[in-house]
TrEMBL record:
It comes from Luteitalea pratensis. Signal peptide: none annotated. GO terms for biological process: aerobic respiration. It is found in: Cell membrane; Membrane. NDH-1 shuttles electrons from NADH, via FMN and iron-sulfur (Fe-S) centers, to quinones in the respiratory chain. The immediate electron acceptor for the enzyme in this species is believed to be ubiquinone. Couples the redox reaction to proton translocation (for every two electrons transferred, four hydrogen ions are translocated across the cytoplasmic membrane), and thus conserves the redox energy in a proton gradient. This subunit may bind ubiquinone. The keyword NAD applies. This is NADH-quinone oxidoreductase subunit H.
């Protein structure tokens, strides 16, 4: 009992350490990447004893500022809900990571440890349920502030998240039909097979339409540019307009956590998760017959490294999109969701069902 608890606590610590540090690093990456794209220097002021390290101390300076800044609750606001809203947003964004497998398994003695915080048979449903509950933090923030702009931002965010999560949910039905499971760890293992002996049977290979629908809808669900209508800095400022200090920082953190979660989901569902092409538990087995034996620990480390690199690549892609595309109008956003992504996702499910029926139910 106690060793199992220690193992779970260790896995939780690893996931939280990685995710929270990556979220903090995102604030620096966002500044630097936007600066490079706009031919500016970017974050370069924060320093410790004169050392600036390319602006890497800025996230630390941000954290110190937010923790020490005065926390203001406007007159007439619901104090309890005002304090509860940012905590709910961060909580549900964090616990969703428990269902994501970041590696295969490691063997210590006679104990086999899955590299996933919570081994859930319906992990995919669990992740989506947690992400959906995060909308309550946004609604409460707009409602509790007693500010028309905050309320408008909250309503925009709610409508946007609900609209795009429908297309998001339908897009993954094709993936579930192909691999026949809601268990994310088994779904990743199912992507370890090959087409014609050398093309990995990843989700993007068998469900390319679902990949683009999921990627677009997921980006909209994170409320980031070009889908940042809930904030709309030149219009309504956002549902967090009446927040300051670390409570504002928690909304900011939740946005980055959701971005990382989307990158994790795209990697898990469509890019083979922790899979490395031609890597088996005993080493590499290449299509031309060559083999390279590896230890079980090397196999596990390569899997975690593969997952991390894919997630970082998607985070970089999201930043590129954020600083490249202009913001859509709200009517364009709704048209894209309901008249664009939704029918495409439904059509993809029908085509997938027909293809599986013709193939006898096997991918």
């Amino acid at each position: 009992m106690m060793p199992d608890l220690l193992i779970k606590l260790t896995l939780v610590g690893i996931v939280f350490f990685g995710v929270l540090n990556l979220a903090g690093l995102h604030t620096w990456i966002e500044r630097k990447q936007s600066a490079i794209m706009q031919d500016r220097i970017g974050a370069n002021r924060a320093s410790i004893y004169g050392f600036k390290l390319m602006g890497l101390f800025h996230p630390l300076a941000d954290a110190v500022k937010m923790f020490t800044k005065e926390d203001i609750i406007p007159d007439g606001a619901d104090r309890v809900l005002h304090m509860l809203a940012p905590a709910l947003s961060v909580f549900f964004a964090l616990v969703a990571f428990a269902g994501i497998p970041f590696g295969d398994r490691v063997v210590i003695g006679e104990r086999v440890i899955d590299l996933q915080v919570a081994r859930i048979d319906v992990a995919l449903l669990y992740v989506f349920a947690m992400l959906s509950l995060g909308v309550y933090g946004v609604i409460l923030a707009g409602f509790a502030s007693r500010n028309n702009y905050a309320m408008l931002g909250g309503l925009r965010a709610t409508a946007q998240m609900i609209s795009y999560e429908i297309a998001l949910g339908i897009a993954i039905i094709g993936v579930i039909m192909v691999y026949g499971t809601l268990d994310l760890q088994e779904l990743v293992r199912g992507q370890g097979r090959y087409v014609a002996g050398w093309i990995p049977l990843w989700g993007i290979v068998v469900q390319p339409v679902a990949f683009f629908v999921f990627l677009t809808a997921a980006l909209a669900a994170t409320k980031r540019t070009p889908f940042d209508m809930p904030e709309g800095e030149s219009e309504v400022i956002g549902y967090f307009v009446e927040y300051s200090g670390m409570k504002f920082g928690m909304f900011y953190l939740a946005d980055f956590l959701e971005t990382i979660m989307v990158a994790c989901l795209v990697t898990t569902l469509f890019l083979g998760g922790w899979q490395v092409p031609y890597l088996m538990p005993d080493g590499f087995h290449f299509p031309w017959g060559a083999e390279l034996p590896l230890s079980s620990w090397t196999y596990a480390v390569l899997g975690v490294g593969s997952f991390s690199i894919k997630v970082l690549a998607f985070c970089w892609l999201f930043m590129q999109i954020r600083w490249t595309l202009p913001r859509l109008r709200y009517d364009q956003l709704m048209v894209l969701g309901w008249k664009g992504l939704f029918p495409i996702a439904v059509a993809n499910v029908l085509v997938t069902a027909a293809a599986l029926a013709l193939l006898g139910g096997k991918s």
